[in-house]
Write a sequence for this structure.
C-alpha cells in the first residue's frame, strides 16, 4: 500500500527557513512526479510546487517562486521542500502528493491529477 509521510514542519519566525521532507513507501518513487500543496485555515488547498520524476524540471506557484525549492532523492524515495524567507502568509498545513506518470509527461498543478497524498505537516510562521 502506497504511503507518503511528511515531516519537518514547525513554528518559525518570519524570515526563517524550513525544509520539509516527504518519504514514500509502497510505490515506485522514480515513476512518480511529486508535488507539494498547502491549505491555510479557512482556505482551499493550493498548489505550491511540483517536480518531474527525474528531477530535471519543476514548477512553482508565483507566491513561492524564488523562496521555495522542491527537490527529490530517488535513491531515498524522498521529496523535499526547502522554504526560505518564510512569511506569515505561508502558514498552512503542507501536503505532499505523488502522481504516476511517464517520463515525458508535462508537470501539472491540478490536485485532482495526483494519486497519493500524505497526511500533512503544519508550518506556522509567526513573530
Amino acid at each position: 500500500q502506497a504511503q507518503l509521510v511528511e515531516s519537518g514542519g514547525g513554528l518559525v519566525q518570519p524570515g526563517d527557513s524550513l525544509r520539509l521532507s516527504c518519504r514514500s513507501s509502497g510505490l515506485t518513487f522514480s515513476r512518480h512526479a511529486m508535488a507539494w500543496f498547502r491549505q491555510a485555515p479557512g482556505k482551499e488547498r493550493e498548489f505550491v510546487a511540483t517536480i518531474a520524476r527525474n528531477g530535471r524540471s519543476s514548477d512553482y506557484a508565483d507566491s513561492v517562486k524564488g523562496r521555495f525549492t522542491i527537490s527529490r532523492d530517488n535513491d531515498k524515495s524522498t521529496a523535499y521542500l526547502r522554504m526560505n524567507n518564510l512569511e506569515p502568509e505561508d502558514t498552512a498545513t503542507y501536503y505532499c502528493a505523488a502522481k504516476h506518470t511517464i517520463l515525458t509527461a508535462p508537470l501539472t498543478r491540478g490536485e485532482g491529477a495526483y494519486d497519493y497524498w500524505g497526511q500533512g505537516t503544519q508550518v506556522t510562521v509567526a513573530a
Notes: The chain has a mean pLDDT of 97. The two ends are 40 Å apart (CA to CA).
